[in-house]
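Bug: token stream looks shifted between consecutive jobs. Job 1:
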Amino acid sequence: MTNTYNLREHGDTYERDFVVRLGDNFPRYENLWQRFIVPLTNRRIDGSVQLKEGIAPILEAMAMAHYSVYWHLGHSSLLGDLDKKLHFQTIFYHLGAAVDMVLRLIFVVWKIDKEVTGGDTVTTVLLDGAIQNAESLLFDLATPGSISRDRIKKQFNQFLDEDKPASIRMFSTGAVAASYFPHLGNGARKDYGEWNVEADRIRKYRNVLVHNPRIGLLVDTAQNPVIPRANRLANYGLWSRVINANDLSDFEALDSVISTCQTTFLQRTDVLWLHLVARLDRLSKELKYQQLARGDDDSRPPRPYVSGLPPAPTGSSGYVPGASGIKVDDRLTGYFRSRR
């Protein structure tokens, strides 16, 4: 039974460490992992975390996206225990990447759904919307004084002033998620909307912190760093604007921003997993899904370890804490020491 496996004993090196940090706010990661990831691995054969040979690439993509969500959230949590003022840009890089991987996972589950059931509630909406938008844009560009022409001029001026690129996006994983998720059952639309509010807040910080020059920080009366609120970031792109800020209500304690983003995002992502687990449970009962997941003959010896995941400890399919001789904290603090 796959539910006899747990992350603390049978996860890979990072999962064993990160479940301690993330488990209370994101328990459904382990639930999905037990039911739909463990059967894709060699754990029941030789205890290794390596994926079985022969499983469909789309299921491998599901396992990779699912794992990557946890990997980025775990590293964000770990860095939050270090010097937040030093590492806040990297923390938001990992949070932003976790947002991207959640959307990637939903995108992959949608593709699995299409292949298994033959049904599709998204493609027509995406294509029709993209064609309509493209036709409308082309028409407006040829019409003086149109809304689109004015909007493009505004974006061009922003590009000149702020080096802010503008592009016309026709398709995205986010568009798929927004169209697909409401079909996953009662409350799915509402839960995705609430998740997306927090995801959008993280994206704003990630995009500014990762793609722009290092942002200026202030300190409050207790000498704690404060950062512009997400919806005010655009006003403080220059250090001089931060230094000369008159409205301190535009700022929030850096520790509070990071802690709130981490905790709220974990909790809202956990709610999304409720809907994904329910949908995958239905899909996994279909013959087509079982064929995708079957893999090669399980009696065949596994190939030498080649994946990005560490091999299982030798001699046991279980996990002995500290057996690797490396703690996550030691790895990361060493990582940053070596690059200062």
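Job 2, same session, no restart:
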Amino acid sequence: MQTDSARDDGNEFWEVIQTAKPNVQIEFDGKNEGYSPRRYTLTFNQRKCTVQRIATFWQDKYSFRVEFCFNNQIQATDHTFLGNTTTNAIIDWLSESTLQELYRKYEFVDRHKRALETILQTVPELARYANIASNEKVYMLIEDTSGAFNQFSSINRIVDIQTLGNDPPVNIDFYWDGCRIFCIATEDNYLLAHAIKAWICENAPPSKLIANFPFFTTNTIAEYYELGKGIEGEFINSWDQMETYFSDPQSILNYSEKAARFIRMLRAKGYDHYFRAGQVVTSFRLSRSRRHGLRNDQPYIALDFQSDYIAIGAHFPHKIQFHFKQLLRKNLFNLNGLFRKRQFSLKNYEYTSELENLLQELMTYPID
């Protein structure tokens, strides 16, 4: 793993290359006053390297996509940070080093591709779940600006493998029914291959992965999904996150402890098993949403925490509108009149029957 200090934005990068290889032709695009170029192209004979600054800003450093080309054909690529290791790899490539020599000396070169190749060599049957046409294109299956990306999937299971900069070679998300159950990082591609096989090919329960692989740890969502109560587990986990958010003394709330105490009181009444919790700045929101993020047609209750009271706002669609929402969504140009809105306040953070009745009414809506 690259440990040397990285140049955060690429300043002076081309000067280092030019000093080491005076005959290299260097072009750069996107240079603005006060900023480094967004893309470098370095050419020497039939060898070429392109260095593209990615929009993502990660751990106080820009990430860069580096391509090693021969006769204008990409031979290797990956995302990394600019530093001495990256610079030396580029100089070696322009100095006629072979791809295998780069592999031996520089871990980041084709790191994602090599990790996936190890996974497929360890468990060849995973190729059926990855739609991989060839090893040369393994890192090009799915790609976005945040890093190389690859996905293995079965009917209701997904494994996303991602890399970015100089983090461990692979960061992995394990999904079940569209919900992320585990998020892990490991450099042991052999064990990872068998973990993916268990999850994708064998539909192994979360407890089996936790028992057999050291990089998995138990969590609320995993436990509830294994019990067949996945949505309930997602709801509880959302309350865990909101309680942490509103308990943070560094938050923008000067009364965060009062807000967190009120949330804990609602949890003690069992509402965390029935509602998804979320927030918009200082507004704590409860809904019956199946997924994170509210649509305009979904009912919710907003609790806006103030210094000595809570402003309550209910946003409930009329039942006829809610039950025919699939039809109405196509023609919802004006939402006025389609929702019943109620507003009131809880002085001194007092829990009242008015709020309880509102919560009970929200509970009558199906999870959607």
